[in-house]
Write a sequence for this structure.
């Protein structure tokens, strides 16, 4: 199969379009620095930790563990005994809305800011529930 001149144009256009789209999406997201890490397990808040103080703690679930570290205002999972290790390989989080999730241990960590006008956590759509009654 031979690549034609038109194929190169299409590939170039798609590459430029996808880069422009990625750039636009990254500029739309909030880059506000958070100051609180909220940790949930089984949809229950188990810990709220300030990001301005270096800390390390162990979270246990069903005989398994995650070690969460906070360093230089960023939070990350430094060690875990889950099989996939996805949470360990995720980048450190520090901006509002960024998350780290460990599905095997049902662990959900999200960065919030308490510097808003209401001095409360931002709304997270992952915690909203739909009404159970029929709307029609």
């Amino acid at each position: 199969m031979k690549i034609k001149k038109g194929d190169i144009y299409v590939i170039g256009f798609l590459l430029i379009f996808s880069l422009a789209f990625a750039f636009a999406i990254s500029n739309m997201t909030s880059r506000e620095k958070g100051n609180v890490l909220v940790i949930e397990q089984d949809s229950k808040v188990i810990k709220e930790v300030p990001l301005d103080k270096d800390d390390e703690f162990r979270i246990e679930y069903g005989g398994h563990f995650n070690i969460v570290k906070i360093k230089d205002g960023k939070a990350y999972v430094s060690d875990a005994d889950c099989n996939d290790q996805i949470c360990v390989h995720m980048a450190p989080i520090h901006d509002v809305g960024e998350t780290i999730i460990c599905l095997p241990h049902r662990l959900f960590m999200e960065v919030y800011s308490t510097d808003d006008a209401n001095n409360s956590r931002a709304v997270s759509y992952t915690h909203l529930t739909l009404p159970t009654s029929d709307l029609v």
Notes: The longest strand covers residues 64-71. The first helix runs from residue 5 to 28. The chain has two helices and seven strands.
